[in-house]
Design brief:
The chain contains four helices and five strands, in the order βαββαββαα. It is α+β, with helices and mostly antiparallel strands. The chain has a single domain, classed as Roll (Hypothetical upf0131 protein ytfp), CATH 3.10.490. The chain starts with a strand and ends with a helix. GO terms for molecular function: transferase activity. This is Gamma-glutamylcyclotransferase.
């Protein structure tokens, strides 16, 4: 199954450390969503929004294992259309928090996410958005 990862799960090394074996990692974005960094990160539907991340192939069992952890157990799967940087569109699953579970702020998470997003070469405007969450 293809999963659209945003946040720290974009880092393949983190997934591997959790026993997940991702393959076929490709950078892309989803339109109609915006990144929201609260105590945890999620994508929320937002007309005109664009959120960047990484599509990776993992098994259904690996997805179940990954999202069974207490820290991410509230995330729910949602189908998305990902536009890869070469313009190709792929269907994927994105795990998001319900809007009512998005609370607080987490500067440390935003700082770590900014490092990953910078390494992946995301657009400056997106890096600025993450940087703002780091300052809030």
């Amino acid at each position: 199954m293809k999963v659209f990862f945003y946040g720290l799960f974009m880092d393949e090394k983190l997934l591997i450390a959790k026993g997940i074996r991702p393959s076929g990692a490709k950078v892309g974005y989803v339109d109609g969503f915006a990144l929201r960094i609260g105590a945890r990160a999620t994508l929320l539907r937002q007309p005109g929004g664009r959120a960047y991340g990484v599509v990776m192939e993992i098994t259904p069992d690996e997805a179940t294992q990954l999202y069974a952890e207490d820290s991410v157990a509230d995330y729910i799967p949602e189908p998305v259309k990902v536009i890869l940087m070469d313009g190709t569109e792929v269907e994927a699953t994105c795990y998001n928090l319900p809007r009512d579970k998005v609370t607080g702020a987490n500067r440390d998470y935003a700082a770590a996410l900014l490092e990953v997003a910078t390494r992946l070469g995301f657009p400056e405007s997106y890096l600025d958005q993450i940087g703002q969450a780091k300052r809030d």
